[in-house]
Fold:
Amino acid sequence: MKFWIIRIPLLLLLMSPPLIIAGPYAPPADDEGTTAVYKDDPAFGSWASGVDSYNPGENVDIGWRDTDKALGMATGSIYDIVSLGEGGDITLTFDGSIQNRDGWDFAVFENAVTDTFLELAFVEVSSNGTDFVRFDNDSLTQDPVSAFGSIDTTDIDGLAGKYRIGYATPFNLEDLPDKETVDINNVTHIKIVDIKGDGTVLDTSGDVIYDPWETFESAGFDLEAIGILISDPTIPWVFDNTAPTSGGCFIATAAYGSPMEPKVQILRDFRDKYLLRSSLGSGIVKIYYRLSPKAAGFIAERESLRSVVRIALLPFVGISYLLLNISAVQTWMILSLSFIFLTSGLIVVLNLARGSIENR
Structure:
């Protein structure tokens, strides 16, 4: 997104007539058949946590080079981004590795202000941070796109930036053209490479890729976040007692009945902001994922047990809410006082649930 566009010319973007959707690929967010994934979708299990490299291209001011803004959860803010510049790139890392699952495996957020003002980028992945493989891609845009021009979403496939702010473009590791260079069950790095929209860059089939050109100040692809998908966002949430470890808050979701329940979101935010950002916290989360799915399935089937677990979770929810909404000093004081309590409580809940399962 080009921020000099926001001041006045944004009105031109918003008032411009809509494109006639004619291409063969998925339509804009909210349209039937879209592949866009909303930022608050419970299918997201974790987010990019580190920056391996950043090579800004042309026409990006220093104020838009804060790489930390690409880490953590997507916010939906047009300002919470790092700009790549024309032809620039950034490589992000994660706590642990990304594995190939059924359906989409990760999704990339950009900050397009409309469904047609799209700035595009290649997506590459690596298992060692050195050898990268690029996803196949296709652009059917026939003519150059001006700085205020539009792109038909249905003409774009395999490129990040396909959807407006708040909605991500998903990718499936199974679609990689080279599965020997990259271990699709151990992806550790994702690289986003801006596409210079002047007609000098080609897609996989050799066709020219056009996007808005030429822009300034925060030119090129504006990366907001990369989220890891731990379940198919197109499938309703269900408890699967035989499923492998995943990223959802299983027991809380079972107790409250929905992954969208605000209390579940508080626990999920606590996990992402605190637990997943340290090796100790990540270890606790992994243990929880290993032990909780069967317990959650058992809890979900019994309303009386759900009520008991909801009461038991209240201290967790309350402390998590406080930690998410107070200063750093206060946070560490509460963490120090509550760590033993939280860990003990979790063990009690898991043991009770496990004992109930074994007695079935």
